[in-house]
Amino acid sequence: MNAQPVIVSSLLNRPQTMSDATFREMREFIYQKTGIYYQDNKKYLLESRISKRLQTLRMDRFEEYLDLIKFGAGREEEKKHLFDAITINETYFFRNEPQFDIMEKTLIPEILKAKAAGRSKLRVWSAASSSGEEAHTIAMIFLEKIKPKYPGVELEVVGTDISPSVIETARKGVYREYSVRNMPKNYLEKYFTAADGRYTVVEPVRKLVRFEHLNLYDQPRMRMMSSFDVVFCCNVLIYFDAKSKIQVVSNLYDSLNRGGYLFIGYAESLHGISSAFKVINFPKAITYKKE
Ligand SMILES: C[S@@+](CC[C@H](N)C(=O)[O-])C[C@H]1O[C@@H](n2cnc3c(N)ncnc32)[C@H](O)[C@@H]1O
Question: Is the pTM of this model over 0.90?
């Protein structure tokens, strides 16, 4: 008896389909703000992601939503929801293990050797960190493998992402089973407390990591990111077109110290995007050095 009104109201609240003209306008707006480019064949994806936002706002026309994000009084706040809605935040701990291995066994010893003797600080940036699994993985490896060999060395990891909700999750440091599925058992036992199917990163790891909201396509903010020894910018360049890749990668280059290294995703390449880096091939991963 009670079910019918609910079904009727959810049907009434379903947004209309997005016209091609509105798709193009929406795509351009998103591209100008984020560098993310939705190809023609991804219209359905954009439509379904934004339609959830329309339902929350009880709007039924995409044009109305476009008007809100372009000219509405609450447009700055709404942009955050839009970025949450359109980004793909898939990630997990130890996602690309060979990269972490290379960082620990080859790059960090080399970087530390080149730094002044005695106490030194390593700075690592997890750009497009999503909910923080990559940034926390780096801090755990530091405590487990690097600190015992170089007790005087300190680490600061900065995790950044355009999506405010994943940054909030990253700051809490509480994860589900899905995120820790690739985690070596000894790390899981040592660096988390587990309760009710939730895994909380322990304080000594969290102390090494801070998370900030940052759009990689925001030039002025990007220019303020500097002095990193290693940058991980993985599985995000795939969402950009060539022009935005060139801009973002050039800013990442500037953010590195000389002798620093960039990692990108396994399926990504800097071919045709940047020739500034020295490409170094390892058997299971590639890294890009700023000489
Ligand atoms: C697939 S996740 C990758 C997470 C992690 N780097 C990894 O490899 O597991 C891509 C992340 O990029 C973020 N992203 C997309 N466009 C961005 C932009 N313009 N600036 C910053 N982050 C962005 C998304 O919010 C998302 O969390």
Answer: yes
